[in-house]
Amino acid sequence: MPAPHGPRRAQVAFSDSAAKQLESITSEAELHALDRALVVLSVDPDAGELLPGDSSGPRLRQYVDDVERVRLVYWVTALKTVVVVAFIEV
């Protein structure tokens, strides 16, 4: 009998500004650190902390990995299947 699949991972999509930031990352170490942070968010979209703000738009979250020195600002869609990254800092 085949092993059951693990939980479904969220898809990650980038805003236009985040895609531009991504294009400017050339260091393999920075790309690796970013990839690790994105894997964390794909497994647990609520891993980051809510940022202060009103409820008129999407609730922004911030994920910070002090070991890898990565900071992502993102929001999660209503279905919690897509994490949209709004800001990348490596």
Structure commentary:
The chain has 90 residues and is α+β, with helices and mostly antiparallel strands. The protein is 27% helix and 29% strand. The protein has a 5-stranded mixed beta sheet. Strand 3 and strand 4 form a beta hairpin. 18% of the residues are buried. The model has no long low-confidence stretch (mean pLDDT 86).
Mean pLDDT: 86
Share in β-strands = 25-35%
Query: What's the total count of β strands?
Result: 5
Distance linking N and C termini: 43 Å
Major sheet: arrangement of strands: 1-5-4-3-2
Total of DSSP H or I helical runs spanning 4+ residues: 2
Are there runs of 5+ residues with pLDDT below 50, and where?
Answer: none
Order of helices and strands: EHHEEEE
Structural class: alpha+beta
Radius of gyration: 14 Å
How can the largest sheet be summarized? 5 strands, mixed
Proportion in helices: 25-40%
Quickly list its features:
90 residues; alpha+beta; five-stranded mixed β-sheet; 2 helices; 5 strands; globular
Please specify the SSE layout and strand pairing.
Elements: E1 11-14, H1 16-23, H2 28-43, E2 49-50, E3 61-65, E4 70-76, E5 82-89
Parallel strand pairs: 1-5
Antiparallel strand pairs: 2-3, 3-4, 4-5
